[in-house]
Amino acid sequence: MTDRELDAAGIGDPALRAAYHHCRALNARHGKTYFLATRLLPVERRPAVHALYGFARWADDIVDSLDPGVDTERRGQVLGELRRSLDRGLRDGHGREPVVLALADTARRYGIEHAHFRDFMSAMSADLVVTDYATYADLRGYTHGSAAVIGLQMLPVLGTVVAREEAAPYAAALGVAFQLSNFLRDVGEDLDRGRVYLPADLLAGHGVDRDLLRWSRDTGRHDRRITGALREFEALTRGVYREAAPGLAMLDPVSRPCIRTAFVLYGGILDAVARDGYAVLHRRAAVGQRRRAAVAADGLVRVFAARLAARRRPGRPAAPSPLSPAVRGTSCPPVAKGVA
């Protein structure tokens, strides 16, 4: 399947093909929900999504998943090396790391603004030193670089039926919505890493602080104050989904089934958390396999319908190729940090 994707995308260089293969493997292994949604995209657009996801996953692993014995200073050094490699790759198209090589090629093909990648790297660097956020506004400042820009990176790949600048705020909001869903699901795991992404003022409004979260995590006991805070954060997140929803209709019709599937599945994380009694400090809520399969099947039906409609639509302009003037030099969801 990967060779067919690469052939359809016009990627022939052996080193580049190997780099894209590597990114696709990262997507399949770590981003199961996102990988499932990506399979609904036109075949020639999938390698670009794999490249965007692969780079984000690689950077995230440097911050979160290196050997626990590696200290913050060393993590910062490794992240700095990746940032410098990224800058070189975006400048001249070369890179030793497969994720950089594939990303630089995708950025060139689709005219993705380099600032989006630099903002993402700044957010990853913040995760090395910032352990909590005082307010929701502070958290949204962080999610601009960690999630909103990922939606903006994806937009040229997905294509739009409106001016890209019109669709951009909705794509950014969708990236944030996905990440906030993950923050809610991963409260316990993030606490073990020393981070609390739920805003301190929201927690305090329910009488919750880090010590109470730690007590609940360590003892396995519930507290109604924590449940109240988690429920409020869920409501905030649902508001961001509502903010993002109008953007689905702005996408190229053949891309909509992919993003709608991701929209439903990541929104389903909120439903799973609520069904599980907001027990995120004790276990990870998950969307069931049956539900995932049903949403994916619905996505396939929508894919076939969109492609059939595209064939029947008279005078429909061809979608812009990656290097067409409609794409080059324009400002423009891989996936938000921690997406699975």
UniProtKB/TrEMBL annotation:
Pathway: Carotenoid biosynthesis; phytoene biosynthesis. InterPro entries: Isoprenoid_synthase_dom_sf, Squ/phyt_synthse, Squalene/phytoene_synthase_CS, Trans_IPPS_bact-type, Trans_IPPS_HH. SUPFAM superfamilies: Terpenoid synthases (SSF48576). The keyword Cell membrane does not apply. Residues 314-340 are annotated as: Disordered. Keywords: Carotenoid biosynthesis, Transferase. Gene3D superfamilies: Farnesyl Diphosphate Synthase (1.10.600.10). GO terms for molecular function: geranylgeranyl diphosphate synthase activity; squalene synthase [NAD(P)H] activity. GO terms for biological process: carotenoid biosynthetic process. Its cofactor is ATP. Belongs to the phytoene/squalene synthase family. This is Phytoene/squalene synthase family protein. The lineage of its organism: Bacteria, Bacillati, Actinomycetota, Actinomycetes, Kitasatosporales.
